[in-house]
Design a protein that fits this description.
The chain has no helices and 12 strands. The protein is globular, with a radius of gyration of 16 Å. Strands 1, 2, 3, 4, 5, 6, 7, 8, 9 and 10 form a 10-stranded antiparallel β-sheet that branches. The chain is mostly beta strands and about 130 residues long. Strand 3 (about 30-40) and strand 4 form a beta hairpin. The chain starts with a strand and ends in a 5-residue tail after the last strand. Helix content is about 0%, strand content about 55%.
Length: about 130
């Protein structure tokens, strides 16, 4: 099963990584294999035991024809995962400055590296403005 997983480890808060569930590995825990994170010599994908509360289905794609606006909550693809941020500035050529509150940092992204942020609540995907 294709999923996204998160962790509470320092340096990874607010991020989600694509993974595949391999098998149950304990009570409310699953062995997963990351789809983008590899070992130090890049010869195999990392595997980890992840608690069920840190696993969610992959979110559906939402396409914005007009692009994003300042203060839109987005996920930005960075360092092999999706990181939650907010559009701080709209630049030319479909580029955006995204602010990451958890790290008090701004990074510029192309439109193709952003997606609308969605939360998995009570078994349904919800856009934060709908909460």
């Amino acid at each position: 099963m294709q999923v996204e997983v998160t962790t509470d480890e320092d340096g990874f808060k607010g991020s989600w990584f694509a993974a595949t569930i391999i098998e149950p590995s304990g009570e409310d825990e699953y062995l997963i294999e990351y789809k983008t994170l590899t070992n130090d010599d890049d010869t195999e994908f990392l595997r980890d035991d992840i608690r069920a509360c840190n696993i969610r289905p992959c979110p559906p794609e939402i396409i914005f024809v007009d692009g994003f606006k300042v203060m839109d909550e987005v996920d930005a693809y960075y360092n092999e995962g999706w990181w939650v941020g907010v559009i701080a500035k709209v630049l030319i050529n479909c580029n955006y400055v995204v602010y990451f509150k958890e790290y008090d940092e701004e990074i510029t992204f192309k439109h193709a590296d952003l997606r609308t942020h969605q939360d998995w609540l009570n078994g349904k995907w919800v856009v934060p403005s709908e909460v």
